[in-house]
Amino acid sequence: MDSSEIREKFISFYKEKGHHLVPSVSLIPENDPTLLFVNSGMFPLVPFLLGEKHPKGKRLVNFQRSFRSDDIEEIGNKRHTTFFEMLGNWSLGDYFKEEQLSWWFEFLFEVIKIDPERIYQTVYLGDESISKDNESISILKKIYRKYGIDALEGPETSGKGEDGPGVKIDFSKEKIFAYKDKNWWQRGDAIGELGGPDSETFYETDKKHDPSFGEFCHLNCDCGRFIEIGNSVFMQYQKSEDGWHEIKNKNVDFGGGLERIAMAKENLESVFETDLFKLIISEIEEMSNKRYRDDIKSFEVIADHIKAATFIVGDEKGVVPSNKHQGYFVRRLVRRAIRYAREIGIDSDNWMSRVASKVIEIYKDNYPELEKNKEFIKEELEKEGKIFNKTLERGIKEFNKLRDKREISAKDAAFLHQSYGFPIEMIQELAQERGQNLDKKGFIEENEKHKRLSRTASAGVFKGGLVDSSEKTKKLHTATHLLLKALRDVLGDQVFQKGSNINPERLRFDFSFDRKMTEEEINKVEEIVNRKIREGLPIIRREMDLNEALKSGALASFGERYPDKVIVYAIDSFSKEICHGPHVSNTSELGNFKIIKEEASSSGVRRIKAKLE
Question: Is the CATH number of domain 3-271 3.30.930.10?
Fold first, then answer.
C-alpha cells in the first residue's frame, strides 16, 4: 500500500462516516500576520473552529500541504521533514472523544492494517485548574480491548516531556501515558482563544533505545524508537480573563502526517524510504554516484529542501528566493541543499531541476499546479543556484583573508556563515587544510544569538492580532473587498487579487497589474472606497454552490481551490466575493480609508499598503 492509497483510503473512510472533503489550500496564508506558511491542516479552518458556520457542514476531512520552517535544522534524523502532507478530520461541535479515537484506531488497524501491538498513546496529565484526561484513558482502554490488548496506563510525566518519567517502562503491557507539557494545545493567549487536551499516537519502530538520550526510553524520547504519527486535539475550553472554561460546542481537530503513516505502514526505518521520496533519493544517488546510506544527512537535506522549495515556488501564489519574508526561507532551503550537494559531489548546472522534476512526478496528480508551473520552478531554482555559486566564490575570497590567523574566531565563522552561507563543516574543513583551529563552541553561541535576533525581527514584522479575534483586523479585511472593486473600477477588469496580509495596523493587498499606478489613479481608488464607507452599505453573507457563486459574478481569489459549497460576501450591490470571515456588518463601521504606499510586488503584480483612520 503506497502513500496514494493511504491518502485515498483516509478520505474515503471519513466520507463513509459522514465527513465532507474540503480542498488543500495554498501554502501562503491569507489574512493572517502570525504565519509565514500554512503549517497544519487546521489553519484554513480556524474561523470555523472559532464559531463561523462551514458551508460543508459539521464533519470535514482533507489532506493539506504544509511547511514548517522551524524544522530546517532538524533534517537528517530519518523522521523530520520541512514539507509534509497532513491528513485531517474535524468535528465542528458534533462528535467528540469517543467517536474520534475509535474511528482513528479503526482506520489504523482495520483499513491500513498497522499492527496494534506497535501503537501507543499519550494523554493530558492535567494541572492545577484542568483535570487529567481520564475520559480519553477510559476510551482508549476499551478500544485496545476490542483489538485483543489489555492496555495498562504507564508512569506519568509531570516535568519536561522530553525527559520522560525517569523510570523503566514495560512497553509490552503499558500502552497509555500521561504527559503534562506535551498534551495540551492552544492556538494563542488572547481572550476568546480555544484550547484543550490532545491525545497523540506513537508507532514503535525497530530502532533500539540510544542511552545518550537518557537512561530510560519513553514515547517522547528523542532517540527515535517511537515516532508520532497522529494527534487528536479536543477543543473543549475557551480562555477568559479568569482562566479556561469548558464550552458547550466542543470541536475535534485531528492531524496525521502522511509520510510518517506511510513509514509505519511499511515498517520502514525512515520517511525517506517511502514512495514519497524514493524517486528523489534514487535521482540523487545517480547524480552523486553514492548511496543514501553513505551520507544520510546530506541526502535527506537535499531531498527535503528541494521538495519544499518546489512546492513553495510552484504554489498558486508562488514565492521566489529573496531576502525577505517567505522568500528568505526559499533561499535558505535552496542554498542549504546546494551546500550539501557539493559535499557528496553533485555540481552539475541542472541538478536541482532534475530533483524538482521527480518531486513534480510524485505529486502532480494531487497538486496539478506543480506540473503547470514546472518550467518556472526549474528557472527559479537554477537562477538561485547561479547567484549562490557567485556568493560562495566571494566567501572563499573572504576566507582567504584569514589565512594568517592561527584560529578562526567565532565572530569570523559567524560572518562567513551568515553573509556567505558557509556551513560550519565547510569552515572547519578549510581551516584544517590550512592548519588553523576553529572556535566551534563560540560559533554555535554566536549563531544562536543571531537566530534569536532574527526570530525577534520576524515577530516584529509579522506582529498583530490573531485572525478573527481582532475587531481592527475584521474591519481591514472588509476594506479589502472595497479596495479590490475600486481597483477594478479604476484600472479595469484585468485586476484580480493575488494575495493579502492583514494585521490590526494595516492591510497589504497584492493585485495583478503591469505598471505603476499614477497619483490620480491612487486618489480615485481611495475616494471610491471612502464614498462606499460613507454610504453605509450592508455586508450580506450567503452560502452557495461554487458554480452558482461564480455565475452570479462573485470574484474568487487567484489560484485558490474551493469546495463545491462556498461562502459569498456581498457589499450591497457594489462588491461580491467568495470569502470567509471576518467581516463587519456595515461599511459605516470602517472609518476613513488611507492608501499608504503603492509599489511593485513581483513581475506583473503590484502591492498596496493601506490603513483605516
Answer: yes
Q: What distance in Å separates the CA atoms of residue 301 and residue 308, rounded to the nearest whole number?
A: 10
Cα distance between residue 183 and residue 220, in whole Å: 11
Q: Which residues 6+ apart lie within 8 Å of 278 measured at CB?
A: none
The tens digit of pLDDT for each residue in 117-152 reads 999 999 999 998 899 999 999 999 999 999 999 999
- Three-state SS letters, 303-359: HHHHHHHHHHHCCCCCCCCCCCHHHHHHHHHHHHHHHHHHHCCCCCCCHHHHHHHHH
CA distances, 195 to each of 98, 125, 161, 188 (Å): 18, 15, 19, 9
Cα separation, 569 vs 567, whole angstroms = 7
Summarised one tens digit per residue, pLDDT across range 261-318 is 999 999 998 999 999 999 999 999 999 999 999 999 999 999 999 999 999 999 988 8
Q: Strand, coil or helix: what is 211? A: helix
Helix (H) / strand (E) element for 8: namely: helix 3-16
521: its cell numbers: 489613479
Residue 464 has a CB neighbour count (10 Å cut-off) of 19
Query: What is the C-alpha separation between 257 and 67, in angstroms, rounded?
Result: 12
Cα–Cα distance for residue pair 594/551, rounded to 1 Å: 32
Residues near 591 by beta carbon (within 8 Å), at least 6 away in sequence? 475, 533, 612, 613
Domains 3-271 and 471-612 in one fold: no
Beta carbons of 297 and 303 less than 8 angstroms apart: no
Domain ranges of the chain: 3-271, 277-400, 406-466, 471-612
Alpha-carbon span 268 to 177, nearest angstrom: 25
Residue 472 and residue 561: Cα distance in Å, rounded?
A: 27
Q: pTM above 0.70?
A: yes
Q: How far is CA 184 from CA 8, 194, 238, 364, 536, in A?
A: 30, 11, 13, 36, 44
> How many residues in the chain?
613
CATH superfamily of 471-612: Threonyl-trna Synthetase; Chain A, domain 2 (3.30.980.10)
Sign of CA dihedral 156, 162, 167, 171: positive
Q: Please give the backbone phi and psi of residue 376, each rounded to the nearest 5 degrees, phi first.
A: -65, -40
Q: Which amino acid is at 461?
A: V
